[in-house]
Amino acid sequence: PVLVVDFGAQYAQLIARRVREANVYSEVVPHTTSIDEIAAEEPLAVILSGGPSSVYEDGAPKLDPKLFDLDIPVFGICYGFQAMANALGGTVAHTGAREYGRTDLSVSGGVLHDGLPATQPVWMSHGDGVTVAPEGFEVTATSAGAPVAAFENRARRLAGVQYHPEVLHSPHGQQVLSRFLHEIAGIPGEWTAANIADALIEQVREQVGDGRAICGLSGGVDSAVAAALVQRAIGDRLTCVFVDHGLMREGERQQVERDFVAATGARLVTVDASETFLSELSGVTDPEAKRKIIGREFIRSFEGAVSEVLGEGASKGEKVEFLVQGTLYPDVVESGGGSGTANIKSHHNVGGLPEDLQFDLVEPLRLLFKDEVRAVGRQLGLPEEIVGRQPFPGPGLGIRIIGEVTRERLEILRHADSIAREELTSAGLDGQIWQCPVVLLADVRSVGVQGDGRTYGHPIVLRPVSSEDAMTADWTRLPYETLERISTRITNEVADVNRVVLDVTSKPPGTIEWE
Ligand code: XMP
């Protein structure tokens, strides 16, 4: 792989994504990874990310100069660029000229920016700067606040930039990253959906051997693609299990039973566990507690389904050893699974797993981003109704009722959600939004007036977001007419709701789901 060394950047995941967009496989590792560990991965290249520190600060993450003895191509970005300059004998100083945001870059030569405009906008965010490039390096760009804004040493396959090529505000950034990977590091772009699918199928075969597996289907893209991959690998030793936890949206169960089976012909067992889930959730209001209960009950339901999966004729020693999950890279990172990252929330299938899990996990998508999963799904021939579906979290409406989850509240939310979805679809907006959680503030009431009478009802929150991979998101600017229709219909048609509000928070600082 290409390793992205994370120096505490907000952008390390994004860099990994961009590298993959250049058809090169990439993973993020924390800056505490030792040189020996890095060398053991035999990386095709190393990218040093940005970070909040100054290289001269006490406690600033250190870059081990031995990295440069490994004869591996290295690309430094922002802090990584400065750390690289510092380690190779260049000079980093407070230039006094801070640059934050859009800046003009003047290109004077080199391979990195070859064929790109001589003056181009880039996104900068730095206080310190490189003032003298290390010996043997050509300075190939400057900006008003950065006398050395890019350098390269082609013979040693080393290069770096002060700006952030990974963000969309640097319009040529993707080309610059690609040029580093392909031209300077000499890595061919071979990471494509077809190759990924083949490699993953092979991996699953190796892991499962001649064992049996069940796959938890949730109705979402991820579990559907994971199931299709595993089915390719082990055929009918896979059984899919759909757990109806009672926290589904309207029509969802029928949709899974119909679409997925039609597309794959896989064996599907449905478990109705709504009674259990709701009684376990009764009285619980804390989001993490809810997530852990839901994660645990999923597993208990899978365990309960094993005898049905094996069938009546099963002999005593027969077992299902493996559980397939559609866990994605962002789920792992946000559950604190990427080392050095905080636990933001326990995704039900990662941080929410019980400790006494009796299955070995098969998670073929664990290192992929959503768009890559979609590409693999298409490669496997899954239809657009499944592959193009908007994300929906495994814990379902359970984490969209703020407060205790009850049957009554689920009815209210399900109704409001179906109205919002119907209107977004009929306005043709599905392609513009990543997803639109509809949230019930069950413990909040406000005063309203309807039909000459006073009401004291709950607010519904609309949370439409646009995103590339759910790691960051912006609120979607929906047309007022659509918002108006949704609001009017919900307040008219849904009992106990007398107010509809719009969430206009990006991520960060908000997460996409409210819990
Ligand atoms: P957040 O709320 O963390 O959500 O910004 C990021 C994306 O992940 C989805 N999500 C989940 N998906 N199990 C899932 O399968 C979970 O526990 C879970 N929590 C959040 C969320 O809908 C969004 O797409």
TrEMBL record:
Which positions bind ATP? S218, G219, G220, V221, D222, S223, A224
Q: Which reaction does it catalyse?
A: XMP + L-glutamine + ATP + H2O = GMP + L-glutamate + AMP + diphosphate + 2 H(+)
InterPro entries found in the cross-reference section: Class_I_gatase-like, GATASE, GMP_synth_C, GMP_synth_GATase, GMP_synthase, GMPS_ATP_PPase_dom, NAD/GMP_synthase, Rossmann-like_a/b/a_fold
Pathway assigned to this chain's UniProt record: Purine metabolism; GMP biosynthesis; GMP from XMP (L-Gln route): step 1/1
A single GO molecular-function term is: GMP synthase (glutamine-hydrolyzing) activity
User: Can the keyword Calcium be found in this entry's annotation?
Assistant: no
Name the Gene3D superfamilies for this protein.
3.30.300.10, 3.40.50.880, HUPs
**Entry's NCBIfam families?**
guaA_Cterm (TIGR00884), guaA_Nterm (TIGR00888), PRK00074.1 (NF000848)
Q: How does it assemble?
A: Homodimer.
Tell me the PANTHER family matching this sequence. Answer: GMP SYNTHASE [GLUTAMINE-HYDROLYZING], GMP SYNTHASE-RELATED
Q: What is this protein called?
A: GMP synthase [glutamine-hydrolyzing]
